[in-house]
Structure formats: C-alpha cells, structure tokens
Specification:
The protein is an all-alpha fold. The protein has helices at about 1-40, 45-70, 75-80, 85-120, 130-165. It is elongated and about 70 Å long.
Length: about 170
C-alpha cells in the first residue's frame, strides 16, 4: 500500500537523519576546539542549525513509523493484566480518544504558521543559517503521517475486535 511505503520511507529518512545529526554534532564539538587551536573557523551557524533540523526530521518523520512498529510507550503494566479482547478495546480507545485528536490538532494548528513561513521564505536570523520554512514544514507533515497511521491502526484494531468475538 502507498501509505506503508511512505511511512517506511519516512522511517528510513528519520533513521539516517539521526546518524547524520550525530556526525554533525561531533564535528561541531571537535571543530570548535580544533578551530580555536588552529585559529580557524571550522564550524558554522548552518552546521549548528543542521543538527536541530535533522533532529526534526528524525523525530517528526519517525512518529508514524514508530507507531507502525508499535514502538511508542504503552501502559503495558495495565494492559498485561487484561484479556486479549480488553487489550484491543483499550488500544482502540487510546487511538481514538488520545492519539488521533492530538495528531489532528497539531496538524491543524501547525498549518497556518507553516504557510506563513513559506510565504515569507522565512530564514534563520543568524548569519549563514538555514531556511526555517523547510523545518516548519516537517511539523504538519509528521503529524499528518501520524494521523494517517493512527487511522490505519484504529481500523485494524476494530477488525481484530470483530474477529475476536462480537461487537464492542
């Protein structure tokens, strides 16, 4: 399915963004001290801002992938004491009452600032910094993917409940 491929690609991108963020962070530390010793500027505002931009990529694009892989924090201590059917009911309830409203609210609230940022082609206030509109675009994109995966999870949970015996 297209959504599966898109979410897997977002997870892949997030994973590599995290590794690149760590490498840039290490260089920024080494470059700062080595540059001082050599009298050179080996770091830049762009590299410093690239770290948080890559963190945004990893975190925001990784939300839906993590949900798909069932890697989000759950209240297992409570769920483990319940029957399989009750676990499904609680998962469905949590998805419908907590996850989806939160994801959709963040998506809706983030659209206006993101559009404004694009209209202004918002840039970093720091010399040599990165464009801010690209980073801001990750918020609605990440939460859109999370909401879509949440809907998919809710549908799958509902189907599992039906198969497990009766209506809920």
């Amino acid at each position: 399915m297209v959504l599966d491929r898109l979410i897997r690609a977002a997870g892949w991108l997030g994973r590599w963004a995290l590794l690149l963020m760590i490498a840039i962070g290490a260089w920024n530390v080494v470059g700062r001290y080595l540059g001082l010793a050599l009298g050179l500027s080996l770091s830049s505002n762009a590299l410093i801002e690239a770290q948080w931009f890559l963190f945004d990529v990893a975190f925001l694009l990784g939300l839906a992938y993590t949900l798909k892989q069932r890697g989000h924090v759950r209240i297992d201590i409570l769920l483990n004491r319940q029957s399989s059917r009750r676990q499904l009911q609680l998962e469905l309830l949590g998805t419908l009452v907590l996850l989806l409203p939160f994801a959709l609210t963040v998506l809706v609230v983030s659209l206006e600032p993101t559009l404004q940022s694009w209209l202004l082609l918002e840039a970093s206030p720091d010399p040599g910094g990165l464009p801010r509109y690209l980073a801001k675009s990750l918020v609605p994109l990440g939460f859109l993917l999370l909401a879509l995966q949440g809907i998919r999870e809710a549908v799958a949970l509902r189907q599992q409940l039906r198969r497990s015996g009766g209506q809920s």
